[in-house]
Amino acid sequence: MNKKSLFQCPVCSSALVEGERQYFCRKGHSFDIARKGYVNLLLPSHIGAGDPGDPKEMIECRRDFLNKGYYENFSNQLNEALISQVSDIDKTKEICILDAGCGEGYYTSRLRNRLLAMDDTKAASMYGIDVSKAAIHYASGRDKNIRFAVASTYHTPILSNSMDAILCIFAPRDEQEFTRILKPSGKLIVAAPGAQHLLGFKKALYEESDVIGQKGTVGEGFELLKHMNVSYDIHLKGAEDIFNLLMMTPYSRHTNEEAVEDLKKLTELDTEVDFNIMIYQKI
Ligand SMILES: C[S@@+](CC[C@H](N)C(=O)[O-])C[C@H]1O[C@@H](n2cnc3c(N)ncnc32)[C@H](O)[C@@H]1O
Ligand SMILES: [Zn+2]
């Protein structure tokens, strides 16, 4: 049976309907649903040459690391931050949420489980997009009830005025697209690394490690409602987790071989994690 969706056609911007094997629009454009359940809504004109987004190996390392629970505390606080912003929405209606740059879906699926555990809220209608096909492949394996699409945030294939909240966790932002997609009361929740993020880890890699954080600030069209900081220490147990952390971060591209070999010898490591969560209201 055909089902309505909040995806929009990347060619003509009409609403996409979910059929048995394809999403299609009223103008006859159609997009196959992969066996895993996701849809590819990325047009060649949306990207440059080569495979866009994070590669498979990086995604696998991030998935294995996140599955160990090192960022669970942050994920929980992110969920509570979002819930506090959508709790006044009419309980008889579905809450519509997009995770933009969702990666392999760790935060998206944990958020859905948290919302399901609330007994007074109707299940959310959740969407996740990422430009990396490998990321979306794994994300759709996490939860079949979240609609995942390979797509770029710069051409978000989501209907205008449809989302109650957008999550953007360590991922690129497009304020114009986010403004278009959000309902008038919609909230944008941005998470970005704070100044102390992974400092202990960086010290193990570099002789001099910069203390550079990102504020997670967004441009025009949004008003900052709240800034939260989540920071705590983690103890990495085992060489595999340490290596996964390296591979899931940009440090894998900026570290010389000698330092990587030294890091591989470590069997445990303590480091800070430091996250900024910014909650914005669309204006
Ligand atoms: C640092 S990862 C964060 C992933 C996930 N939010 C998490 O925290 O685990 C950044 C993600 O942004 C994706 N990405 C990069 N450019 C993008 C774009 N233009 N549109 C959508 N996703 C993009 C990458 O493929 C990658 O999965
Ligand atoms: Zn179309």
Q: How does this model look, in words?
A:
This protein is 29% helix and 29% strand. It has 283 residues and is α/β, with parallel strands linked by helices. The chain has a single domain, classed as Vaccinia Virus protein VP39 (Rossmann fold), CATH 3.40.50.150. It has an 8-stranded mixed beta sheet with strand order 5-8-7-6-9-10-12-11. A 4-stranded antiparallel beta sheet has the order 1-2-3-4, with no helix packed on it. Helix 1 (56-67) crosses helix 7 (239-248) and helix 2 (72-86) packs across helix 3. The protein is globular and about 60 Å long. The relative contact order is 0.15. The mean pLDDT is 92. The structure holds S-adenosylmethionine and zinc ion. S-adenosylmethionine binds next to helix 3 and strand 7.
Write the layout of secondary structure elements.
Elements: E1 3-8, E2 15-18, E3 22-24, E4 30-32, E5 39-40, H1 56-67, H2 72-86, E6 96-100, H3 106-116, E7 125-130, H4 133-142, E8 147-150, E9 163-169, H5 175-181, E10 182-193, H6 199-205, E11 222-237, H7 239-248, H8 257-265, E12 268-282
Parallel strand pairs: 5-8, 6-7, 6-9, 7-8, 9-10
Antiparallel strand pairs: 1-2, 2-3, 3-4, 10-12, 11-12
The chain binds S-adenosylmethionine and zinc ion.
Protein structure class: alpha/beta
Distance between the termini: 38 Å
How many individual domains? 1
Bound molecules: S-adenosylmethionine, zinc ion
Oligomer state of the chains in this structure: single chain
Instruction: Name the strands of the widest sheet in spatial order.
Output: 5-8-7-6-9-10-12-11
Radius of gyration (Å)? 19 Å
